[in-house]
Design a protein that fits this description.
Chain lengths: ~240, ~240, ~240
């Protein structure tokens, strides 16, 4: 599906490509200065890369995290619109920058290519959704977007409707010795980070890579069982990849 | 439909059952302590009952209110995610607790059974939705979730799009001598309670039970007429029950 | 479609008519005083006109702006619920008032008639949406709802997913010498105005009418190209009208 989507043609020089979950990658070579000064991003970079989607954030963050590690780009801002078409979750709006527009272009190309892989651990059905991240070494995107600790193993899970997320979180934390970074529910965030009333309970955690992976796998198993009790048609957005890690 | 849904099987010990409007009931016998300490609920109970849904809150609150009255459970928190699939309203995320997990389990079982009844006074169509509560004696859930006065007759109405809610509210308050508790619109709540930008005007009120019921019935009649002018296919989620009260 | 919708019958005296994007126009001749006192609108008017919708705000604002100019009504409040069915945008909830209920009724009639015209510059598809305003002379609704400068040429553009809006804004501001009034993204508003986490980047601007129109037309061209790269089925809600201005 991704390959097909990448064939989408668009005459605009800003267009890089599209991916699953209504994701589009864009680059602005030299952004308008008035716009930049009003954007709440503290930067002088005028080459801006954009990864933006209607649905899903965890998979796109994983993809962009890897892309930023492989290029010389800086994470400028990560915003989570309360949009997900008819899920109770988020889309994403991520900006990266560099002195050199070719770095930005390369990073967004990589992120678009990897999005279809990483949204494989996003599961949806008519009754709700589940999203997971597991990174053996968190990079700047996971730090900026989800308060991971740089270079450490990082796990994230969310479940919707929110109560499913709570049962997942409970099993997750009991399954392996990991350190909770934060937990959120519709009304409660942590510091500057918040669900902004999405229908989710989310947690993120760090620790030994094996333990973090174990905890994420447990959350996934519990979430699948419960969401399937609501609607048996729970499916990965693309292809699950955790089992091959 | 409910009976069929209750037959859903799920091997998880936490699973109690499902009901209309993508509602699921769950129980955690001994919640993880780290999770509990970060949950913004002031409790030492570790047996937690969960009633959570994608869509609708009024009907689930009525069901849980009755369930809590019949058991020895305490309302721990009521959150209203800004999710309702493609309505402009809310889902719900309700937590109750007890020293004894069997009380919690019993309460959530009752709440799941009653949800299908009480969502009968939730009406939807492609153009909007209407929700109503009438309780002759408000219990702890209506107090915690909607600022009812405990033990007093309580009425609630909401209409979406918001302007329909305002006309309903106007007719409602003119139809019987009731006391307004609060009114909300997309941007304005009351104290800690807010619509969080849902597309609704809501009011709640108390007074003599006959008057409260009259006011709710008036709101329903007006809401049905106006919503049907937008889309004739307005339907109860299950079966209306006010007329048989 | 509008004509057909206007034929909708409704026995309620408050009903004026319906229009595209699940818009309904309503009038309350003498609003309940308790309700009025709790509405966060500073007014003694009891004749209230209502324009309210599930989806879209820009087109309805244009329609109501013209309607208010043609009657002796005052803008009382403009709220933007975070509802748009399954778009990542807003609906609207607008209240106007007058001493004389016939003025209010006339204004809402005009607004309903004009809504179908002005939502012609709202474009949607499964992957996102675009909305535009261009007014040669902003009136009280554009001032209250979007911080236009009264009597001056005013332009507004939004694109979703948000990153498309940013590229539109960049091209827009580079295409003609206009003055940015504000820009917003999912997390950041300006003063009291905010997207409240919708999946949009929006800007509004003022200046010479020819320049403002040029900037809006550029934004539309860029937005159409990018949104079509995500989903070729981008369509106006009714009929585009900018080209005939």
């Amino acid at each position: 599906m991704n390959q097909e989507l990448l064939l989408n043609t668009c005459g605009r020089k800003e267009f890089i490509g599209t991916a699953a979950l209504d994701t589009i990658g864009l680059v602005i070579a030299g952004i308008d200065e008035t716009l930049l000064n009003n954007m709440h991003i503290d930067t002088s970079y005028r080459a801006i890369g954009i990864l933006t989607s209607r649905c899903g954030a965890a998979g796109q963050f994983m993809a962009l995290d890897e892309a930023v590690k492989m290029t010389d780009c800086k994470v400028l801002s990560i915003e989570l619109p309360l949009d997900a078409k008819n899920w109770g979750g988020h889309g994403c709006y991520c900006l990266i920058g560099s002195q050199d527009v070719s770095n930005v272009r390369e990073a967004i190309k990589i992120a678009i290519r990897l999005t279809d892989k990483y949204v494989g651990e996003v599961y949806t059905c008519d009754a709700g959704h589940l999203e997971f991240c597991f990174s053996a070494q968190a990079g700047d995107v996971l730090v900026a977007g989800l308060q991971a600790e740089k270079g450490k193993a990082y796990g994230f899970m969310t479940g919707s409707p929110a109560g499913i997320g709570l049962v997942m979180a409970d099993n997750c934390l009991k399954s392996a010795p990991v350190d909770l970074i934060w937990q959120m529910s519709p009304f409660f965030g942590e510091g500057d980070v918040s669900t902004h009333w999405s229908n989710e309970v989310m947690i993120s955690f760090k620790g030994d890579a094996g333990n973090v992976k174990e905890a994420v796998m447990t959350a996934r198993e519990v979430g699948m069982d419960l969401l399937k009790a609501m609607d048996p048609n729970v499916e990965s957005v693309t292809q699950p990849y955790f089992d091959s890690l």
